[in-house]
Amino acid sequence: MSKWMKKLLGMTCMLSLAVGMVGCGDSTQNTNSAVENTDNAEQANSEVTLKTIEKLGVYFVPSREPEEIIATTEPLKELLKSSLQDEGYDVKNIDIQVGTSYEAVGEALSAGTADIGFIPGGTYVLYDDGADVILTATREGLNKDADEAKAWNDGQPTTSSGQQTNSYRALIIAGPSEKGQELASKVNNGEALSFDDLNSANWSIMSSSSPAGYIYPSLWLKNNYSKSITDLSHAVQSDSYGSAMARLASGQVDVLLTYADARRDYEGKWTSEYARNTSIWEETNVIGVTPAIYNDTISVSKSSEIMDDAFKTALQNAFIKIGQTEEGKSVIAIYSHEGYQVANSADYDNEREAQKLARENN
Fold first, then answer.
1. 300 secondary structure, DSSP code
2. Which of the listed residues 291, 308, 330 is the one where a domain comes to its end?
3. Is residue 274 in some structural domain?
4. Of 239, 272, 291, which one is at a domain's C-terminal end?
5. Are 190 and 248 found together in one domain?
6. Mutual orientation of helices 216-225 and 349-361 as an angle, nearest 10°?
């Protein structure tokens, strides 16, 4: 073999060896990267492992037509699934139902047939042996929320506070009649009203199941005078807040019981349909303010097999998140809910006392 051929062969072998070494080096590096990627993937999969919930039963009270509630709340299924996934839960199926009555939903929660119930505070209190409250609905608050009646009587309209609130007040309002003005004058002068003062007036009340128009004003009378609505000598039941306002405007009654923003709702009618010449804010005065009435609840079943503290927390976070989205707001608006806040059972102690009083009166 010639000398130059030997050199060429040697160079070729060296080049092949170098290429082989480089190839081996890449193979080792790729193998290590693959192992590392596999480890990372396994770790990631471990971190996102979701707890599976096969079925979640959500029940609504029939405050509207059942068909309307079912149709409006249909998007809640996917919203809730998505929000709960963020909390570590894979919910396979959400079953939404409307109870035949408020009591039926309470009983479903107690039995564990329903996992979650959208129920008023009153229904929750009746069934709190079998249900836990986890959230209270929020609504637009008012710029006045004082315990003292006089603080509501500045002659100016009650307006939105721009803040969400989880409760509202019931008010005892005196109208433009001579007796109504007499009672208002005492309150605005800082004088305490006696029960005789109140009993000398003609009252408009609502049905005995109305929180703002009966139950909580009864609690106010009990707390302040050890009396109840049944002790009033002159009380007539109105079939609606509108008819109660009309009676107040005409002087047929001196005092009415209503929810805190009722005057906002009837401000226009006061000077049109009810033919008053002065605004409702100048002609009416608050003479009593009830304890706070907490809003509707989202409650969960104590008997549900899937309900533990971790899942309750997940539900709280999920519904609060849903209430902050436009799509979520459009769903919960069917119950006039605007959002949710974490609730405590003690928030509904006034409701417990009010219901106890109602039972005693019946």
1. E
2. 291
3. yes
4. 291
5. yes
6. 90
Give the HSE-up count for residue 280: Cα atoms under 13 Å, Cβ half-sphere: 24
- Helices 309-322 and 76-86 cross at an angle (nearest 10°) of 120
Residue 221 falls inside a structural domain: yes
Range(s) of the domain holding residue 96: 51-141+295-361
Cα end-to-end span (Å), the chain = 123
- Domains identified in the chain, total number: 2
DSSP string, 53-98: EEEEEEEE--SS-HHHHHHHHTTHHHHHHHHHHHTTEEEEEEEEEE
Q: What is the pLDDT of residues 163-187, one digit of tens each?
A: 999 999 999 999 999 999 999 999 9
275 Ramachandran zone, left/alpha/beta (phi>0; psi -120 to 50): left
Q: What sign for the dihedral angle of Cα 79, 82, 84, 89?
A: positive
Residue 160 CB partners (closer than 8 Å, separation 6+): 140, 141, 142, 143
Give the tokens for residue 100.
Answer: 């035949």
Task: State the average pLDDT over residues 7-33.
Answer: 41
240 and 177 fall within a common domain: yes
Q: What is the pTM of this model?
A: 0.77
Sequence-distant (≥ 6) Cβ neighbours of residue 76 within 8 angstroms: 58, 94, 96, 322, 328, 331
Domain harbouring 62, CATH code: 3.40.190.10
Tally Cβ neighbours within 10 Å of residue 50.
Answer: 12
- Choose among 173, 251, 166: nearest CA to 212: 173
Compute the mean pLDDT over every residue in the chain, rounded to the nearest whole number: 88
